[in-house]
Amino acid sequence: MIKSPFHITLLLCALLSCTQHKTVITAPTSPEDAEYTRFLDSIDSIIEGFYYYDFNDSIILPALEFYQENDSRRNLWMQARCHYLIGALQFGENHVSEKAAKNLVEALKILDENFDNSDDFETFRETSQQRSKIHYVISKIAFNFSNGSGCKRFAMLGLDCATQAHDTAWMARSCSNLGMIYERLGKAGEGDTAYMYCDQGMRLADADRYPLERAYLENTYANCLRHSHQYDSAIYHFNMAKSLINNDVLLYHKTFLEEAFVYYQKHDYPTAIAELEVAFQTTDHNIRNQSAAGLADCWEKVGDTMKAAPYLSIIKASNENEIVQRHHNTNAMPILNAYLQSLDKSDKSANIVWLIVIIFTASAVVVAFYFIWKKRHLNTIKDKDYEALRLKGRAIFSDRHNNKMERIRNEFNAAYPDAMAKLSAAHPDLSDTELDICILSFFSFRLKETAEIMHLKENTVAKYRTAIKKKVQTDDLEKIFH
Question: What is the pTM of this model?
Answer without folding.
Answer: 0.65
